[in-house]
Amino acid sequence: MGSTVVLEKSQAIWRLTLNRPEKRNALNQDMKQALMSALEECDSIGPEVLIISGAGDTFCAGQDLNERKSQTDFDLEASIRDFFAPLAMKIRQLECVTVASVSGAASGAGASIALLCDIVVASKDARFIQPFLKLGLIPDMGGTWVLPRLIGEARARGAILLGDPINGEEAADWGLIWKAVEKEDLEATVDEIAERICQNSKQACSATKAIMHGSSSCGLEDHFVREAQFQGRLGRSDFYKAAVERFFEKKRVAND
Question: What residues form DSSP beta bridges with 128?
Answer without folding.
Answer: 106, 166
